[in-house]
Amino acid sequence: MSILVSHLSKQFGPQKAVNDISFQVGKGEILGFLGPNGAGKTTTMRMITGYLAPDAGEIRINDIPVSEENQAIKALIGYLPENNPLYLDMYVKEYLRYVARIYNIDQPWKRISEVIGMTGLSTESHKLIRSLSKGYRQRVGLAQAILHDPEVLILDEATSGLDPNQLIEIRQLIRDLGKEKTILLSTHIMQEVQALCDRVVIINKGIIVGDGNIHMLSQNLSNAYRVEVIFSRPVVGITLREISGYIRHDDAGGNRYIITGEESTLNEAIFDFAIRKNLKILEMSTLRESVENIFQQLTTKAS
Amino acid sequence: MRAVYLRELASYFSSMIAYITVGLLLAVLGLVLWVFPDFSLLQTPFASIDALFEIAPLIFIFLIPAFTMRTFAEEKQAATLEVLLTRPISAWHIVTGKYLATLSWLAIALLPTLIYVYSIYQLGSPPGNIDLGQIGASYFGLFLLGAVFCAIGVFASAQTSNQIVAFVMAVFFCFVLYYGFYFISRIASFSGSLDAIIESLGIDYHYHSISRGVIETRDLMYFICLIGLCLTWTWVTITKRT
Questions:
Q1: Nearest 10 degrees: CA dihedral of B180, B204, B101, B113?
Q2: Partner of A274 for a Cys bridge, out of A105, A279, B25, B80, CB 3.0 to 4.6 A?
Q3: pLDDT number for residue A239
Q4: What pLDDT was estimated at residue A220?
């Protein structure tokens, strides 16, 4: 396991920011780290990067325990903190040269131009960081995080403040990076999780309330399956009860029905029903729980 | 450490900070030494530059804290310190890198004042009739004094994310260390007993001891210990995170 977090706790005064959480991220996996504001995401990430020392528990990266003093382990991690702090009075290239110097990168300029190309900074690379737009600053933040080619990337709200086009580019970059690297990505943008992550860990008030892939999580939450179907002609509501496993239905108008059933074979049951009733199915789709729904249910259930 | 040192130094010179502070030091010293009649070297009958070493500490009490106030406070404010501390560089190297950069600035700031020494040297009768050994020792003392103030400034800057708080704190500590102990030792009830000990706690005492041209180990140790104390405390502050 690339990142292994076990029984991690951190307390600030009377408040338990992180309370006995455990999860792991495998190599080549992009893990979405979800949670409402103040859930403990940033605190957890700060502990993984070695910035904060945990009160209890352990973090291992490539099986080596993380500690503040362990400089070698820090070189394995690339970190983009929340709000992307940068030296505004430095030039983009100057800043990256400085970062390269800290990591003792061989042939720094070659690597810097490589990373500038990857992050799409070429046109802005000669500018002062202060004069960059938020989207480009975010790219500089990403560039400094990947400059030393770390195995593990910790990205705290990496895509905040990007416009839709930039969003697509940066997500593509993260996806490409995720093929070889281990990425822990915190966000509260739900589409991002759907677009990028193999798995999500949902945290609320310092405890993990969900861990798994999005589909699995939605299944665990409710045993009901919902299918939206459009028939060729109206159906009398009562007859829909003949569908095996039927629970209830909603008439959405225009021959469109949302049918809730208790079995995963609901689609087949509807199909059989249509044949029996000599109905034509014009459209049929399974309704999945959206990440928003999962998120809301999990984080409000716990509180 | 080298990366931090170079970045700091570059930031002094890419912004106006270095130019303004060095310029200010030269301007004030120039005015006092050559223009203001109370101190003006042109009015004194001796080719001596002692006035420079009397005035410079006073300027340093304000100038050095103004210069060093940003070292850590700015990085704390912008949260860049957080990123820096997660990089493979020890906190001690961050502190020493930044501190050495302030020392380099100090050396650069003092360098142009040699022009004043040269001027006095030429003004002597006959030219060159001046105690160069004593001036050398005085410069050494002044550099050590500046080095202590820099360490205090770096320390104060690490305590807060507000640069003004850092400045005020540093001025206060510099003032207490430089003048405070001397004045406390003058309190009547200490006279004859503790006054010598209290006075020897102050920078002023050791600075003047070196300025006389005698570099003693105990004076050197005093400055080195003070710098070490400030930097260690700075290191403790930035490693202790809650």
A1: 130
A2: A279
A3: 82
A4: 63
DSSP B131-189: -HHHHHHHHHHHHHHHHHHHHHHHHHHHT-S-HHHHHHHHHHHHHIIIIIHHHHHTSGG
Q: Is the ipTM of this complex over 0.95?
A: no
Q: Closest chain B residue to A101 measured between Cα atoms?
A: B3
The parts of chain A modelled with pLDDT lower than 70 are 68, 218-224, 288-293, 301-303
Judged by a CB distance cut-off of 8 A, whether residue B44 touches chain A is no
Task: Judge whether B118 and A128 are in contact, CB under 8 Å.
Answer: no
Q: How many CB atoms lie within 10 A of CB B20?
A: 12
CA angle B218/B223/B226 to nearest 5° reads 120
Q: Which of B86, B93, B98, B241 to mutate to test the interface with A (most CBs of A within 10 A)?
A: B86
Residues of chain B with pLDDT under 50: none
The pLDDT value recorded for residue A10 is: 93
State how far the alpha carbon of A269 is from the alpha carbons of A163, A175, A253, A266, A281, in Å: 44, 38, 21, 5, 12
Cα separation, B227 vs B149, whole angstroms: 9
Whether the CB of B82 is below 8 Å from some CB of chain A: the reply is: yes
Beta strand pairing status for A199-204 and A30-34? parallel
Contact B87 A103 (CB under 8 A): yes
pLDDT digits (tens, 9 = 90+) for A100-121: 999 999 999 999 999 999 988 9
Task: Pick the residue from chain B with its C-alpha nearest to A141.
Answer: B83
Quote the pLDDT of residue B174: 95
pLDDT score of B159? 95
Q: DSSP letter at A91?
A: B
